[in-house]
Design goal:
The structure holds 2 protein chains of 2 kinds. By secondary structure, chain A is mostly beta strands. Chain A has strands spanning about 10, 15-20, 30, 35, 40, 65, 70-75, 85, 90. A 5-stranded antiparallel beta sheet of chain A has the order 5-1-2-7-6, with no helix packed on it. Chain A has a 4-stranded antiparallel beta sheet with strand order 4-3-8-9, with no helix packed on it. The relative contact order of chain A is 0.28. The longest helix of chain B has 16 residues, at about 30-45. In chain B, helix 1 (about 5-15) crosses helix 3. Chain B starts with a helix and ends with a helix. Chain B is globular and about 75 Å long. Classes of the chains: A mainly beta, B alpha/beta. The interface of A and B includes residues 19, 21, 95 and 98 of A.
């Protein structure tokens, strides 16, 4: 999968949807709920269950970043699964206080 | 990332929330996205080129902006206040283009070669037409998002190029997605052809904040609309804020719903900020500094910074009220001398910035350095804590006998005089010194003697900074976005000097 900035992905095992904010340096596989995520426009295959090891959940508006690959995604729709990249769990970034001026 | 995606995300997450207009009959995020898509599909069928917007600010501005983004066409809002001939000349420069034009302005721009003009009401109907709403927008590579003509106060207007990646970087690095509460509403009173007008659309959509437009600014109308719509946020240029404060003072209205006012786009007199803080203690004031070429804000004086400065006895902290704050987290900032050497804190030089949101590009001319640094052409310095003090355009610095004198410092001192209402300082030619310090000044109750005013400056600054030429006026000239027309003053006073000699 090509994790280009602006590309949108959805979980096959829960409602989670994300958009890529920062791309990975090399090839990588983004997963949610223990399964590879699919392109936003693709049809969801039926019958894929959430893996218990990847079920912390995601929340809309949260950002997730992986230091190893450099990937950063923004969750646009929350779900029960949690995100991982090549099997490695990626956590939510601390929400930093942003100095909005608009 | 591209800017159309920002709206798609908001429409997905906050479909039923009001995006623009009044809560009672506004446009939801889902509807805004549907209109923009339909508009994009139709525009795509009209052939290639730029999408021009000529008209008052209003709900059709974001529709047209996002419709252009949807099909990856540059969006170019033009200044409808220009003389017809000038407006037509700029429109001709956008060809080939499709121009969405306010119905009552159609006659001003018809017949420009290469520009298909479409009335706003017609485009509005197209965006509601099922045949376009149900069609799929074509796939496109997103590159240039916005083309903005500079105001041309320094000559022929240049076209600043803002790419999708610049604007999207700015939004994503400064705003938390859908963090706005449902009752938040922002009042946009800057024109659509100002970078702040573009930034306001993108950041409000991404934050999930309702946007209300004031098409033509008057301070009375602004206050009325802010009260009526329970406005919580707004961005203003300095002249607007001063005039709004006068109205609030007169009417006693205090806008209890208001939470945050940001200002920028020009030098804000410290007295106005102090008055604003005193009059509206429940409001957070934020000063944003940025340029068109930097996708708007690069440095921010936060609400906390304002409070710390106003309540401090330490002059170094107190004076930060006159600074533009510190760079955004994603921005690097340096002060450099004319040879490019980086200067330490406290020394004045040219402000340089670097970051993903910086475009530093004009049509047919890239001014960004290879290593990504952009020279702002603003003079400034930073204090020990990194607060940036902008002294004005580098071109406005007065060179008197080899000494560089920045007008801002002298203007600040003169503004503190109780009878001075407005002032502009600039250089005029001088046989002995190269340039000498001149000022155009607006006073109350007649005017103090030039000796008194000169003494006021001399007792606070070096004697070389004391104006030698005084031009008393009823008002100073500003353009419609609050930019002082300093060069016009300079030309007038120079001509007067020559005539008197």
């Amino acid at each position: 999968m090509e994790l280009k900035p602006g590309s949108r992905w959805k979980s096959v095992a829960c409602d989670t949807e994300v958009v890529v904010v920062r791309a990975t340096a090399g090839a990588a596989q983004l997963e949610c709920g223990g399964h590879p995520m699919i392109a936003h426009t693709e049809a969801k295959p039926a019958g894929l269950a959430l893996s218990e090891d990847h079920s912390v959940g995601t929340q809309a508006g949260k950002r997730f970043a992986d230091d190893v690959s450099g990937l950063e995604v923004l969750c646009t729709k929350g779900g029960k699964g949690s995100l991982s990249i090549d099997g490695r769990a990626i956590g939510a970034k601390e929400a930093k206080k942003l100095p909005a001026s608009d | 990332m591209h800017t159309a995606l920002l709206l798609e995300m908001a429409a997905g997450a906050l479909a039923d929330r009001t995006a623009t207009g009044p809560v009672s009959h506004g446009v939801t995020y889902a509807e805004l996205a549907a209109r923009a898509r339909a508009g994009g599909v139709w525009l795509h069928g009209q052939g290639g080129g730029t999408v021009v917007f000529i008209g008052l600010n209003g709900p059709m501005m974001p529709v047209t902006l996002f419709a252009s983004a949807e099909i990856a066409r540059p969006f170019a809002p033009l200044n409808y206040r220009l003389q017809d001939a000038e407006l037509r000349r700029l429109l001709a420069r956008t060809a080939p283009s499709v121009a969405i034009v306010d119905d009552d302005m159609m006659g001003r721009v018809e017949g420009v070669e290469g520009a298909l003009v479409v009335a706003r009401s017609k485009f509005e109907a197209i965006c509601a037409d099922p045949q376009y709403r149900e069609a799929d927008a074509p796939d496109a590579d997103h590159d240039i998002a916005v083309l903005l003509f500079t105001s041309g106060t320094t000559g022929e207007p240049k076209v600043a190029v803002l790419r999708h990646r610049h604007l999207a970087s700015y939004v994503i690095s400064t705003v938390e997605f859908m963090h706005a509460d449902e009752d938040e509403a922002t009042l946009v009173s800057v024109p659509p052809y100002h970078i702040a007008g573009i930034a306001a659309v993108l950041t409000s959509v991404y934050a999930g904040r309702r946007t209300v437009y004031l098409p033509t600014f008057t301070p009375e109308a602004w206050v009325d609309l802010a009260a009526e719509e329970a406005i919580t946020h707004a961005m203003l240029v300095p002249t607007m804020l001063g005039r709004i404060l006068d109205v609030l003072e007169k009417t006693g209205e205090r806008l209890p719903a208001l939470r945050s006012l940001s200002y920028g786009g020009g030098r804000m007199p410290q007295a106005v900020v102090e008055k604003a803080l005193a009059l509206l203690p429940h409001v957070d004031f934020v000063n944003g500094y940025g340029l068109t070429e930097t996708s708007s804000t690069v440095a921010v004086l936060t609400a906390d910074d304002h409070r710390a400065a106003i309540s401090s006895d330490d002059p170094a902290v107190r004076r930060r009220l006159g600074s533009v704050g510190r760079p955004l987290p994603a921005i690097e900032l340096e002060i450099r001398d004319p040879d490019g050497a980086v200067l330490p804190a406290g020394q004045s030089g040219e402000v340089y910035v670097r970051g993903e949101q910086i475009s530093g590009e004009y049509l047919h001319k890239k001014v960004l350095q290879d290593d990504g640094w952009f020279a702002t052409n603003d003079a400034g310095w930073v204090d020990d804590e990194g607060y940036l003090f902008v002294e004005g355009r580098l071109d406005d610095v007065i060179v008197r006998g080899g000494e560089n004198i920045s007008p801002g410092e002298i203007e600040d001192v003169l503004r503190q005089h109780p009878r001075v209402r407005d002032v502009a300082v600039f250089g005029v030619p001088d046989d002995q010194w190269g340039e000498k310090v001149a000022c155009a000044i607006v006073c109350e109750d007649g005017h103090p003697s030039t000796d008194e005013l000169a003494g006021w400056v001399r007792s606070r600054l070096r004697s070389t900074k004391t104006p030698e030429v005084w031009s008393f006026r009823a008002a100073l000239p500003y353009n419609d976005t609050g930019k002082l027309l300093r060069r016009q003053l300079k030309a007038e006073v120079t001509a007067q000097q020559l005539a008197d000699a």
